[in-house]
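Example record

One chain of 171 residues, shown exactly as stored in the release files.
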Amino acid sequence: METEEIINRVATSGIVSLDLEELYHPGERVIYDIKENLFQGMILREKDYREFLKSHDWSQYTDKNIAVICSEDAIVPTWAYMLLAIQLEPFANKVVFGDLSALEGQLFSDAICKIDPEEYRGRRVVIKGCSKFPVPISAYMDITTLLKPVAQSLMFGEPCSTVPLYKKPKV
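Predicted structure tokens for this chain:
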């Protein structure tokens, strides 16, 4: 009885798999709510705020990813957020204005910007879809716009079961 050799066609197809989950930043995510700095939950008093900024222990934000929000319906001047960013910047890994979703999107965007699209020139690329970590839809859009100009084709899913997204037209 002769046995047929099993050939892994996925492995020999030349398809490159890109897993966005590998770009997940492991640092802690923290919300800084500027409402804690409001006088009577309504207004930001500059003198009090500046004193707080000087005396607060900012080292507790070392290597953390900070989403800055104001959960109160209050008018907070733009400069207040700018002063806060100045204090957080030396310690935090990342500081963004917005909720945790905005923070996650920015972390992935930063990581995608570091990818050299030339590594994917003329390649058939599968962008993996399943992950243990939450990959925001914006990351899938960012990687698509980064790779479309250089890739031969883009697919979504797993190499053995993909959804075709784009195929470079034949010239």
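Notes: The helical segments are 46-55, 78-88, 100-113, 137-147.
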